[in-house]
């Protein structure tokens, strides 16, 4: 049974390097060495590390509660179901949602595809009168942004191709922010859906959710928020954000891989036609037809990700106990330190907002004369783990005149000493490759 999160005392005390060092003791992998050097893990934007409480939650399920959920009446099955639904309640509470508004998925990508394919099914007439609001066809429009991760672009490309709808995007300015003056021209009365990221996984930009939601609601469009880079790092309240749908992944918020979640307003989820079909999501089945359960069960066909969901519940509790505002403030400090430090190194171009502008705790950069993969290898030799490539955002990189960048991303377990060691190493890259002449 997952306990209700307990807030640390005092809640208004910010994180410090001393407390971060204490937090690091909860993460076994952070004590390892890479290439004979202490690991400096600056790739949390791709996947975060797991505290002991999360590892133990999943292990405890298999050792003491392993059984199918929502299917058996024996004691073990009841215990497993209780733990599974307690985890749903914990994660829903973490984002300000009701448990019946949270659908388990494999990851955020599946959550986006769930909505896209459900809308496609509605466009084929599935789901009856209640689903007609989701139907698209020629003359309708889907709007995304130029900074989207491929996971929040390709499903909408495919939906447009299947339905004949038009796909348009809000462009990105040179400073890494959205060109909001053009958003109103793109989000027209023909728009049925506006899908956008809360925070960019490349630029660190925190997008103006309220303004984009206002524009979408003004034309009667649905909104879907990709919160992969915000739910782990910022306080998120889905009711305050007022979005219709929101997705995030467990492995980016201290949880295991193979689990994510889709939030949707209850009345919308109940009206959406199912995406995957099979067992556990039905009320009545004949040889000719089936009737489906309400949300969230109507979207959870087959054997579920039980242990992963329970571990994600433990991760949500860990973050809540630490305090999301404290985590946001700490990462803002680290992000500012990254941007200012990288900006002081000759031959480096930092993407996204300038120092002093709010961002999440990551920074992507280009080293003049050195390919990003070579930068990553150089840093890896020093025990520093970063991400290199286009970060699943090729259109954004193309817009900025680049093919690949190096990205350093922090989390609640990152110290200022680690950031400084990374900056010292980056300063050696161009001299090492002879690109400083």
Account of the protein in words:
By secondary structure, this protein is of the alpha/beta class. 38% of the residues lie in helices and 16% in strands. It has helices at residues 17-24, 52-64, 75-94, 108-123, 128-131, 154-163, 180-186, 209-218, 238-241, 266-271, 306-322, 324-343, 372-381, 394-399, 416-426, 429-432; strands at 33-34, 37-38, 40-41, 102-105, 141-145, 166-170, 191-197, 222-226, 245-249, 260-264, 282-285, 290-292, 348-350, 362-367, 384-385, 387-389, 405-409. The strands form five sheets. Strands 4-10-9-8-7-5-6 form a seven-stranded mixed β-sheet, with helices on both faces. Strands 13-14-17-16 form a four-stranded antiparallel β-sheet, with helices on one face. α8 (209-218) links the parallel β7 and β8. The radius of gyration is 22 Å and the shape is globular. 49% of the residues are buried. Belongs to the class-V pyridoxal-phosphate-dependent aminotransferase family. Csd subfamily.
Query: Unreliable stretches, pLDDT < 50, 5 or more residues?
Result: 1-11
Give the strand tally.
17
| Helical segment count | 16
The helicity comes to 25-40%
What global shape is seen?
globular
What is the terminal separation in angstroms?
A: 62 Å
| CATH class category of the largest domain | Alpha Beta
Instruction: Please give the largest β-sheet.
Output: 7 strands, mixed
Structural class: alpha/beta
Oligomer: single chain
CATH-defined topology of the largest domain? Aspartate Aminotransferase, domain 2
Strand order of the largest sheet: 4-10-9-8-7-5-6
**CATH architecture descriptor of the largest domain:** 3-Layer(aba) Sandwich
Compute the average pLDDT. 94
Number of domains: 2
Corresponding CATH superfamily of the largest domain: Type I PLP-dependent aspartate aminotransferase-like (Major domain)
Strand content: 15-25%
Radius of gyration, taken over Cα atoms and rounded to an integer in Å: 22 Å
Family: Belongs to the class-V pyridoxal-phosphate-dependent aminotransferase family. Csd subfamily.
InterPro entries: Aminotrans_V_dom, Aminotrans_V_PyrdxlP_BS, Cys_dSase_SufS, PyrdxlP-dep_Trfase, PyrdxlP-dep_Trfase_major, PyrdxlP-dep_Trfase_small
Cofactor: pyridoxal 5'-phosphate
Keywords: Pyridoxal phosphate, Transferase
């Amino acid at each position: 049974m997952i306990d209700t999160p307990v807030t640390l005392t005092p809640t208004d005390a910010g994180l410090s390097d001393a407390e971060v060092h204490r937090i690091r003791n909860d993460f076994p992998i952070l004590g390892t060495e890479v290439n004979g050097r202490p690991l400096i893990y600056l790739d949390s934007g791709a996947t975060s590390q797991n505290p002991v409480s999360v590892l133990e939650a999943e292990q405890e399920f298999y050792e003491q509660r392993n059984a199918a959920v929502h299917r058996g009446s024996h004691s073990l099955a009841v215990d497993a179901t209780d733990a599974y639904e307690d985890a749903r309640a914990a994660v829903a509470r973490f984002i300000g949602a009701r448990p019946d508004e949270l659908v388990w998925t494999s990851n955020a990508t599946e959550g986006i595809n769930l909505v896209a394919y459900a809308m496609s099914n509605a466009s084929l007439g599935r789901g009856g009168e209640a689903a007609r609001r989701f139907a698209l066809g020629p003359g309708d429009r889907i709007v995304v942004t130029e900074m989207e991760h491929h996971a929040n672009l390709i499903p909408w490309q495919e939906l447009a191709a299947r339905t004949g709808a038009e796909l348009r995007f809000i462009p990105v300015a040179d400073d890494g922010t959205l060109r909001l003056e053009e958003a109103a021209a793109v989000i027209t009365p023909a728009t049925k859906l506006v899908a956008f990221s809360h925070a960019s996984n490349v630029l660190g930009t925190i997008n103006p959710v309220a303004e984009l939601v206002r524009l979408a609601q003004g034309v009667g469009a649905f909104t879907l928020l990709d919160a992969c880079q915000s739910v782990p790092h910022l306080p998120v309240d889905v009711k305050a954000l007022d979005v219709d749908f929101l997705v995030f992944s467990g492995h980016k918020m201290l949880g295991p891989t193979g689990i994510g979640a889709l939030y949707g307003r209850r009345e919308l989820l109940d009206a959406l036609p199912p995406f995957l079909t099979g067992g556990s999501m039905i009320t009545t089945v004949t040889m000719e037809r089936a009737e489906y359960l309400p949300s969230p069960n109507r979207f959870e066909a087959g054997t579920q990700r039980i242990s992963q969901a329970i571990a994600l519940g433990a991760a949500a509790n860990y973050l809540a106990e630490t305090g999301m505002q404290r985590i946001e403030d700490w990462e803002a400090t680290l992000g500012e330190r990254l941007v200012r430090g990288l900006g002081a190194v000759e031959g480096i171009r930092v993407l996204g907002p300038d120092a002093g502008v709010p961002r999440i705790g990551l920074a992507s950069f280009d080293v003049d004369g050195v390919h990003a993969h070579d930068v990553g290898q150089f840093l890896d030799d020093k025990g520093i783990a970063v991400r290199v490539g286009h970060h699943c955002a090729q259109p954004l990189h193309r817009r900025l005149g680049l093919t690949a960048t190096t990205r350093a991303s922090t989390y609640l377990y990152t110290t200022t000493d680690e950031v400084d060691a990374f900056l010292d190493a980056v300063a050696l890259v161009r001299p090492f490759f002879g690109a400083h002449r």
